[in-house]
Amino acid sequence: MINDLKKFLNEEQDPKAVEKLLTKVNGLLTSGEQVEYIAVQKKPAINLSPDCIALTNKRIIFCRPKNLGLSMDFQDYAWKDILDCHMREGIMGATFSMKTIKGNMNMLDYLPKAQARKLYQFAQQKEEEMILYRREHDLENKRAIAGGGIIVNAGTSIPQQVEQKEDPLEILQKLKKLLDSEIISQVEFDTKKIEILSKM
User: Fold this and answer.
1) Greater confidence, 97 or 27?
2) Phi and psi (nearest 5°) for 57?
3) DSSP string of 36-103?
4) d(CA 8, CA 32)
5) Maximal C-alpha separation, the chain
6) Would you tell me the crossing angle of helices 186-198 and 168-180 to the nearest 10 degrees?
7) DSSP classification of residue 145
8) What is residue 89's predicted lDDT score, i.e. its pLDDT?
9) How far is CA 18 from CA 12, 46, 75, 89, 197, in A?
10) Residue 140: beta bridge partners?
11) What string of DSSP letters covers 150-190?
12) So what's the pLDDT on residue 2?
């Protein structure tokens, strides 16, 4: 457990708060999810149970102790649902805030500046990944709406018949144009290419 804690204490986090939070957050993790970073609030007054933010590879979890730390209120947001994250530095620390694509907002203040910067850095990296994810998801939806190869009530496999009549090189050229126009992904192109070349 000590080794697990060490990786979260690089920016002078309160070890007791991190240990307490990590124990509770680990019980919330889903399959393949892992805690990447923990930031702990540091108010100027004595705060026995500080609020924290845990970043995982799948979501942001705001953790707010209640009843003198005997219970914990968790609010989590999947990275794919987060639109924007911000950080604002002040004299007494920094504030980290986030907004979802549905307009929900959450924030945590009195964070040490080094911890807030790490949160922001990690969040920006995830935002970039999610922009690409949403773009690919939108393209898939547009292809499906436009009738991207879905055949209803067809007794025979029409696409295979069309492919056999067309020249495989022409099909590959068409697929390359779709790839260049970002209508299909590189993975889709490679899969179709292997399938066409195997029939030659």
Assistant:
1) 97
2) -70, -10
3) EEEEE---SS--SS--EEEEESSEEEEEEEETTTTEEEEEEEEGGGEEEEEEEEETTEEEEEEEETTS
4) 19
5) 77
6) 180
7) H
8) 93
9) 11, 17, 17, 22, 55
10) none
11) --SS-SS-HHHHHHHHS-HHHHHHHHHHHHHTTSS-HHHHH
12) 45
At residue 59, φ and ψ (nearest 5 deg) are -160, 170
Assess contact for 196 and 172: CB atoms under 8 A: yes
Q: Distance between CA 124 and CA 10 in Å, rounded?
A: 20
CB 51, CB 64: distance < 8 Å: yes
Dihedral over alpha carbons 70, 24, 107, 134 (to 10 degrees)? -150
Query: What's the order of all strands across the beta sheet hosting 52-56?
Result: 35-40, 52-56, 59-66, 71-78
pTM comes to: 0.63
State which amino acid sits at residue 81: D
Identify which of 186, 87, 79 has the alpha carbon closest to the alpha carbon of residue 131. 79
